[in-house]
Amino acid sequence: MPRKDHKGKVSGQLPYISDVKVENMVYGVLYRSTIAYGRIKSIQLPDLPEGYEAVGAEEIPGPNYVKIIKEDQPIFANEWVNYIGEPILMLVGADLNILYDLLEKVKIDIEEHQAIYTLEEAIKQKSAPGVTMASYEFGEILDTITSIELKAHQIIEEEYDTGYQEHVYLEPQGMLAIYKDDEIVVQGSMQCLYYIKNALINALACGDDDVRVVQSPTGGGFGGKEEFPSMMACHVAVAAKAVKKSVMLVFDRSEDMVVTTKRHPAKLRYRTALDRKGNILSMSVDLFLDAGANEGLSSVVLQRALLNSAGVYKIPHFHAKGYVLKTHTVPNGAFRGFGAPQSFAGIESHMCHLSNTANIDPLEYKRKYLVKQGDPTITKGNFRDPILMEEMIKDLLNTSNYKKKKTEFQQDNQQNQRYKKGIGTSLFLHGCGFTGSGERDHIKAKVKLVKSKDDQVSLKISNSDMGQGIFTTLSKIVAKELDLPYEEILFPYPDTKEVPDSGPTVASRTTMIVGKLLERAAKKLKSQWQTGVEQEVVENYVHREMIPWNEKTFTGDAYPAYSWGVNIVEVEVDTLTGNVKLEKVYANYDVGKVIDDRVMKGQIDGGLAQGLAYGYLEKMTSKEGKIQQKSISDYGPPTSLDVVSIESKIFDNPYADGPYGAKGAGELTLIGGAPAVQAAIEDALQTPFQQIPVTPEVIIDSLWMKEGEEG
Amino acid sequence: MITFTLNGRKVETDAPPTARLLDVIRDDYELIGTKEGCGEGECGACSVFVNNLLQNSCLIPIGSIEGAEIITIEGIMESEQFKILDESYSHAGGVQCGYCIPGMVMASAALLSQNPHPSEAEIREGISGNLCRCTGYNMIVDAVSLAAKKGDGLWQKK
Amino acid sequence: MAEKITAYRFDQLDQTLSQLNKENCAIIAGGTDVMVMYKSRRGVPPKIPKPIVFIDHLSELKRVYQKHKDLYIGACSTYSELLENPLIPGPLKKAIKTIAAPAIRNRGTLGGNVCNASPAGDTLPLLYVYNAKLLLRSVNGERIVAISDFIQGVRRIQRERNEIVAEIILPSVMEEGAHVVFEKVGNRNADAIAKVGFAGYIRLNGAVIEDARFAFGAVGPTMVRSVDIEKGLFGKTIPLADTDIAQVVGAFDKIIKPIDDQRSTAIYRKTVALNLLRYFLSMNQYQHNQ
After folding, report:
1. Half-sphere exposure in the Cβ direction for A243 (13 Å, CA)
2. Prediction pTM value
């Protein structure tokens, strides 16, 4: 059974947005700030030839911000600029050559102010006005922790840093606004149609019927096309309205690398009290996220980071506090895992280091603290569903021959002076869907099935297939319920004129939440089925009974369900160069129930490749507000020669409120990669690291230090 | 004027000699199967055959291909080899977002025509210039391996 | 608005040379570097500031042949062509295989890699230890220049406007007896730009070192090589004493001065360069592997 979109993709004939040309279309190019923080004093435009126009803040019919959460992100900066690359105005016209020449002649005078360039600086200045954008604190009372620490045998403090991660979706961002007399149709590469539609209604100060958003085939998203496209949509729509032509904006790869959102760099501080045997008595975590120049989704990312700050463990007397801090750098945003990868990298690393102190195998140490069904979560919620982690761990230990390898590697490493082998593990979970009561209070998903007179059934939902395969999985669910051949189910690219708001395509919610709604809708349609008659059914989200989430006190059930995973990774490290070679990767997962094996394997392999690379390969840095890696090869996402085959297995653990028991899967697969690869490198070199990515530079530096210590 | 063969058809273009082959085939001949992912030869989404050799069309100035034979994904779409690759990619689940796929298929075809029975390592080498961010490559490697088996005899070295 | 761009593509080398004699041109021998260097933005041609001469199709520049013990490589041989050619020494093939990926290797040329004169040029460390020479042609005739004299700085070469690098000569390379290694350190296993490159060459007479050569890439504006340091090893026996190794490593420590950039750090580059050298010098045996 082929994927729904296979034919068009394999032949390349399915048009992505950059393949589209419409009548009366012009291109847009953006003039961007070259200053990290400053006040715009004047804008001087060159003489524009006929047919060329400039569009800026003055042309925006509505308020000048991109509607996301806070009103802090201008569509076109017109007073202050807050990062290098921030759009100030757009030039539009027919010929890109001419546009690029004109762009070089735009003169903008900016009075420069003292910028905050790094997370370190922002932490130092976190009490200064505007620097802390959001902050949450929860868990054990600090006085209690202090009194525990007083009696503890030992207190371990560790600081852990995680770097940027860039999505590198293969298709760069692109958006087209089609100008019509009575409406603006915005079409492009995107994950969240209604985020864009709401941003457009706000920016254009128009009615619901005046804008329409249509998803184009989307060449990868990974979160990078969650909130960022809203800004581009505003740019092209405002421009189209101003020049009364259709406007296309497509990014060059280097532009995409430098100005689009990335995974938040983070700093995590752990303070853990241990008894004489190395048992944990209490743990406090301080977590800092670098938001970049505006808040965007950062507060929500912080929530997820904090909710995962204790990993898969039941830690006695746990306390956590987190901050979203502003820097004058490119805004950071959604990326597969959404705050969880930072937290899991940190906690898995910390637990591994604690196990060294206790002189116990890391995996054995971690298993002692594994949460079990019925345990409370760190926010006083409950793990109410069965947890298969022990089973999954045991199975993976067998598959990978972990214990034998661990001993063998240690012996081999004595012999081989240059190459050292190591094996590492990670244990992790992912909370499925929106945090807390987001689904009930904010999203309120609605799905629709439409049956035509000739009995063809179409899915009408606002979710994007960006490669993850929902055309296939969701069609399968509907086909199965209706007893129809999968091939006959239609799932057109969504268009807000046709589809209700079934929510954004984020947070590993699509299969579990939207899939469940579709299952119910299909059941309903089947029960009402009238051959030869047009029919329509709608289903609305129903919230699972759980401990109500309170965002202020940070208590309650943060998620309706959790997916789980175990990774084991083997590496070989070249001690002369610090290069890390992946040797073997093993993975077990519980995602409830798999809808389509191939789609699931695609998520596993792709997610792991990204997660592993986050731990040792992909490196992005910012220097005085400028992203340094402007090309794919300088940044270094894995090629086919960097990934190895992955042995994976799925454990069934059906969840009552997911279709056939399915939970979320898309983000989970990324999370375990980085901590497992770090642990494997540590095992190979018998050296702890306090950061990811563990690049060759980091490795060589630490080997050099170690040599110094050992004289 | 620059003359070359595009998918078996003699064509002539008045594009400037520095124009990228990628832009010429996409804009002037509306062949959209060749994608732009990076514009620097680092992703392989724009792979085409130049005189039967896999090359990145974003790095080729049109002035340099006078008389050359250019084949894009559209030029192989009707072939038996493509049908095998199509089925194999589908069967192995090698396609996700799809943006790298036409280039990946070109690289696969190039590899198999030079080496009809590649090992896993040779397949990884053969597609190493084609970046994919969705699949982690393994299902693509499986697809090429499957195509080699299914199309046994079809990939004879030219 | 786009200015008229002139480009030449002659059938013969002679015509090409006479055009070069008339006009200062940018030479494209494959173009995989030139097209990136002058890259404009999406959808428009690169902005090359001079008239262009294409030379990669000239068969006169694609011949590979042996003359006595010397190997002559036509400058416009593509990397893929060289990989297929039985005359090309194994270590050079190994270096070529680390270049980018197949599609680039089908287009990029050895002469292009030399004339691009990037500090990270993948074949350069090896060409340096092979004492490669370049045969330059112009309407006035030919001249031969050592690669280390030809490459003068970052993207700076000693080529006269009217000249073309026609052949790369590897002197005495077909002679038996040398052990040659090449190591490229990049951030990943394909499509990577070198953070450090190292080539080592050693020729023994029994256990006595007759000749030793080392070149380091991506740790300075040009390849780092020192004939003086190398000479210090001549006459020593294998395995080398720790003090000899330390002396050579210490001497290179003084002259390797890398920089920080978006790909790596100065300290990493230097440490790894010296690590690779030390490792090469510490080997207990060296086998002929040309």
Report:
1. 28
2. 0.98
